What does this fold into?
Amino acid sequence: MANKVLNWGLLSTARINNALITPLRASKRNQLLAVASRSQANADAYAKEKKISRAHGSYEALLADPEIDVIYNSLPNHLHAEWTIKAIEAGKHVLCEKPLTLNVEQVDAVQAAARKHGRIVMEAFMYRHHPQTLKVQEIVKSGSLGTLKLIRGSFSFVLSREEDIRLLDPAMGGGSIWDIGCYPISYARKVVGENPLEVLGQQVTGPTGIDETFVGQMRFANDTLMQFDSSFAIPFHAFMEIVGSEGTLNIPAPFKPNENEKIFITRNDKTETIKIKGQELYIGEVENMADAILLGQEPRISLDDSRGNVMTITSLLESARTGKLVSCC
It folds into this structure.
């Protein structure tokens, strides 16, 4: 299968599709073949605008297309589990936008379907494939920062479109923690290499009940602590900081790094700048899917990894609701 070109289909006409179209068209092992919408007219209009050769007037029709190998699931959060499982059962591999699901039971159902049908499913955390993130992991694993003590992270921006689904309903996966708080949570879990033992969360809710601003803390084994915040009410703010017994690593653009970025290590009041030659932000997840499907390599983001992130988020939300420390994972 190494020489096969994978045909992709877009499950919906969501705005986030734009991020995938460019790398799919740049890849030698992947190509964008089709898009689906809830009506033929919408699918036709989108396909014409984006120059996509096939337009399906229902999600079911896309899954029934025998020439589609991979589905990009960009539906709203509460539909991720349902349609990812339907795609797997139709014989498709799936790249699913984050969050993969909204509870652990749904992750388990996705994992069971993937195993039964022998399909690759990966959550679309694009930053995890970027050379900057891989360099950060290398630095931490080298031990040059010493023993991990504290990780801090933040991701916020002002979301003011009242009709935006992310502001509407907590039960549909609305709220800042599912949309952007998941990034620093995922980042810290990957850096530490394990799930937290316990979490504590606080939130400020908006008019519809979603968390407008969320602040959380996680404790890992060996007393490594992580603090993060996410918000739809604070101007853009994003960073990660990893503090060890021997030094501090600062990542100014951790989640959406440009093609060339800098990270900084401070030891004994001296700061070293590390320049990283990057790549297009979303190309990594597209190529990693091809590696997994065509070459049999393990996806960089496993379903067990996604399960840990979902468990952590749901535990944090439980803590915010109850006002109590919650054991998790």
